[in-house]
Amino acid sequence: MAVETSTNRDHSGKKNPGKVPKRISKAEREKTKREHLNELFLALSNALELSEQNNGRASLLDEAIHVVKNTLDEIDSLRKENAALLSGSQYVSMEKKELQDENSALEAQIGKQQCALKGRVSGSQVNLNVAPTECELQELESLGDEHHHRLVCMEPAANPLYLVPVCYQELATTELAGKPMPVVRKPHPRYPTAADTWSSDFLKTNQS
């Protein structure tokens, strides 16, 4: 029986030559844990890029906390700046839209003015063999509406009636021809005569 058990153990050992034993001592576990922590702190010191090489774990942790706080503050400020930039971009987009609307309105006004100018130029040189353009038709319709509106708004006013005789000039000429023309003479000066003097006897009687 002893020979069989030994042979069985030899066969089991041959079957799993690289198998790790299940139980590991506590010291080995602590050693591996310390090694892992040392690796982590070394990576942390390399990430922080500290000038001092001989730093303890406490100083490394304090420096890491300080860096994290600064990073969070920077993130907060960047968020606020992003919100301000978004509001500014919205305002700029609104201004751009308003400018586009104003530009389109100005283009429409320029087109109307050009149509009116073409209509006036073509009105001076009318060609009855050519049909009017769309701009001319719009101009004529607008002028017709304005003229109709003015006629409606005008109040009727009674004009004075004058009766002019047709033969007035002929009658005047015939009357002047029938009457003799008056002769204008130069007046002569009038001097007192003997009949115009009072007699002395008459004056004496009146005085007495």
UniProtKB/TrEMBL annotation:
Residues 21-71 form the BHLH domain. Its main location: nucleus. GO terms for cellular component: nucleus. Gene3D superfamilies: Helix-loop-helix DNA-binding domain. Transmembrane segments: none annotated. Residues 61-116 form a coiled coil. Residues 14-24 have a biased composition (Basic residues). Residues 1-32, 189-208 are annotated as: Disordered. It is found in: Nucleus. Keywords: Coiled coil, DNA-binding, Nucleus, Transcription, Transcription regulation. PANTHER family: TRANSCRIPTION FACTOR BHLH47, TRANSCRIPTION FACTOR BHLH47-LIKE. This is Transcription factor bHLH47-like. It comes from Olea europaea subsp. europaea.
